[in-house]
Amino acid sequence: MFRSVIRLQSRFGGVISFCKVCPRHELFRGALKYSTASTERKRFYQDVSISQGEGGLYEVNLDRRKLKTPSGKLFTVPNEALAIAVATEWDAQKDSIKFYTMHLTTLCNTALDNPTQRSKEQMISAALKFLETDTICYRVDEPPGLVELQKNEWDPVLHWIESRYDVAIGSSSSILGPEIPEGTKETFRQHLDSYSLWSLTGLEFVITQLKSVVLSLGMIDRHLSVEQAVLLSRLEEEYQIRRWGNVEWAHDYDMYELRARTAAGALFVHLSSESSTVKHKLMQD
């Protein structure tokens, strides 16, 4: 028997139910193989639910069938908040399931399957490589308008992170970029090591989107909003667009896509760090 504690009315007349007890059904196999590429398939389920399984982990169920990862593992997440967020992604799909829009699901699959078989140390090293080529550390010599814009918009963020973490980073207009002190790298290495493997998966995803450790940590630490971080990561492009114009629909699409991916990554970091369960009465009927 399901004991529903949260119910959300779905477009298909079903509900998302959030429960503590779930009977054992056949493991769900309908969505085993998919990727983040531009693939779609017809929606084949009515209801989405979550349940708490062994070890206190949470599972996502489609029509009471347990979801699995692309490699065949049982899809489990560490807390209720993240389970609800993933279930909402599945319930938000309309007539077609657009897997490439389901960033939280994809990040969970990555954390569970670890398809590249990387250790935590390797993930940290990969993330820190972006510090050496950080977007806001590379400056231009001309035109004067862009030089001033970079100084006015990027310098405050750079000064904030140097003060926040007691490090030196700097900026340079050299093609080689600034020389990052070893002490700075070690400070950030220790900071990233404090993240769980799940949270680090989300943070690395954000860093690759923004191509900036500085902007990513600024957003995760809530110094910057998603919109601010994305705009700052595209500062030179936005300057050129204002000066020369753009193909409006293409610019808007790229901007919204980057915002969506960045927001999903930041949300994943915070949700995967959440240890307490969601209060049952937040969304009750």
Structure description:
The strands form 2 sheets. Strands 1, 2, 4, 5, 6 and 7 form a 6-stranded mixed β-sheet that branches. This protein is globular. α3 (120-132) runs parallel beside α6 (197-210), α6 (197-210) packs across α7 and α7 packs antiparallel against α8 (226-233). The chain is 48% helix and 11% strand. The protein has 285 residues and is an alpha+beta fold. A hairpin with a 5-residue loop joins β1 and β2. The protein contains 10 helices and 8 strands.
Quick structural gist:
The chain is an alpha+beta fold. It is built from ten helices and eight strands.
Overall form: globular
H and E string: EEEEEEEHEHHHHHHHHH
Tell how many strands the DSSP assignment holds. Answer: 8
Query: Mean pLDDT, rounded to whole units?
Result: 84
What value does the Rg take, in angstroms?
A: 21 Å
- Regions with little confidence, pLDDT below 50 for 5+ residues: 1-38, 276-285
Query: How helical, in percent, are the residues?
Result: 40-55%
Largest sheet: 6 strands, mixed
Spell out the key features of this protein.
alpha+beta, two-stranded antiparallel sheet, 6-stranded mixed sheet, globular, disordered C terminus, 285 residues, 11% strand, disordered N terminus
Helix-strand blueprint:
Elements: E1 4-9, E2 15-19, E3 40-42, E4 48-52, E5 58-62, E6 65-66, E7 76-77, H1 80-92, E8 96-98, H2 103-113, H3 120-132, H4 144-165, H5 182-193, H6 197-210, H7 213-220, H8 226-233, H9 235-244, H10 248-272
Helix pairs in contact: 2-6, 3-5, 3-6, 4-7, 6-7, 6-10, 7-8, 8-10
